[in-house]
Specification:
It is globular, with a radius of gyration of 13 Å. The protein has a single domain, classed as Gyrase A, domain 2 (2-Layer Sandwich). The longest helix has 18 residues, at 38-55. It is of the alpha+beta class and 98 residues long. The chain starts with 6 loop residues before the first helix and ends with a helix. The protein is built from three helices and four strands, in the order αββαββα. Helix content is 43%, strand content 19%. The protein has a four-stranded antiparallel beta sheet, with helices on one face. Helix 2 (38-55) packs antiparallel against helix 3 (82-97).
Length: 98
């Protein structure tokens, strides 16, 4: 189990992923992504799923026509950890290539 990020340390880490929104209770982050069609959203979700499997850290993903939302938290730690921030940054890299 990893240590949860709190206070100033949490702010420093989330500054690295400015497009992600911190939840009001500061235990999760999420980001919405837009696509031109369903196929684009599905392809993105599949790439995020592959990345999650590689890192054994699995986000919640909701998607539909032209959209996907990725949410991250470390359930076993009860909040955000460095693993969440790292995976969010890697998801951003997938989005940049889409």
């Amino acid at each position: 189990m990893a240590d949860t990020l709190k206070g100033e340390e949490l702010r420093e880490h989330t500054n690295r992923i400015p497009d992600w929104e911190l939840s009001d209770d500061e235990v999760g982050i999420s980001r919405s992504f837009a696509f031109n069609d369903f196929a684009g959203a599905l392809a993105f979700v599949n790439r995020v799923g592959e990345l999650a499997e590689q890192h054994n850290h699995h986000p919640d993903i909701a998607f539909g026509w032209g959209r996907a939302e990725v949410s991250l938290t470390s359930h076993d730690s009860g909040g955000l950890t460095e693993r969440d921030i790292e995976l969010a940054a890697k998801v951003d890299q997938i989005e940049e290539r889409s």
